């Protein structure tokens, strides 16, 4: 059987309707699930927050692969999800409310090329919390279940594994909150607000 079956690239209303319409691809996937050949049906998307929200609200999926990171939602940044929230944080929370799995796509690359962070970024997250570790911890704190790591060599796992090993430590959480404050203050300064 296939444990996690995903419709890839449900990024437009047209593609969503194609999959979800009566007799569409979801019908076939659900038949295979009923036969025990698929355990969980999900989707991946580069769609707008509104399309993603509609996919989640269809109640047809067990999990979603979406873009979200501390600095925004990649392609979804600046777009309203239909409830007044910008980007995909609202969609991430909606998935959690619906007991769906949340897989975050490319948070370390699209979230600021954190494999090669700038010196300024390193200063803002602090000497005891490298940017990539901060990014992983932030995502787990907001409820993401799985994050793609995108490794080029085995040692690329090191920082993420370290983040997982310290995520429940209160001192670590204090460092994460401080980094979030520093980054938010810098964002306000960059926008000319202080």
From TrEMBL:
InterPro entries to which the protein is assigned, alphabetical: AKR2_Oxidoreductase, NAD(P)_OxRdtase_dom_sf
Entry superkingdom: Eukaryota
PANTHER family named among the record's database cross-references: D-THREO-ALDOSE 1-DEHYDROGENASE (PTHR43312), OXIDOREDUCTASE (PTHR43312:SF2)
Protein name stated in the entry: NADP-dependent oxidoreductase domain-containing protein
Species of origin: Tetraparma gracilis
């Amino acid at each position: 059987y296939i444990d996690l079956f995903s419709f890839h690239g449900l990024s437009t209303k047209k593609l969503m309707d194609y999959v979800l319409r009566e007799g569409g691809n979801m019908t076939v996937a659900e038949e295979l699930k009923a036969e025990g050949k698929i355990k969980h049906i999900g989707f991946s998307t580069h769609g707008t927050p509104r399309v993603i929200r509609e996919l989640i609200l269809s109640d047809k999926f067990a999990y979603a692969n979406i873009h979200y990171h501390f600095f925004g939602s990649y392609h979804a940044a600046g777009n309203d999800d239909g409830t007044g929230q910008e980007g995909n944080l609202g969609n991430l929370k909606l998935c959690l409310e619906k007991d769906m799995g949340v897989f975050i796509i490319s948070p370390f690359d699209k979230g600021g090329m954190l494999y090669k962070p700038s010196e300024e970024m390193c200063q803002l997250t602090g000497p005891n919390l490298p940017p990539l570790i901060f990014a992983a911890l932030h995502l787990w704190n907001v409820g993401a279940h799985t994050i793609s790591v995108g490794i080029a060599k085995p040692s690329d796992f090191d920082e993420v594994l370290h983040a997982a090993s310290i995520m429940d430590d209160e001192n670590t959480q204090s460092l994460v909150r401080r980094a979030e404050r520093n980054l938010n203050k810098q964002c306000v300064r960059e926008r000319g607000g202080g």
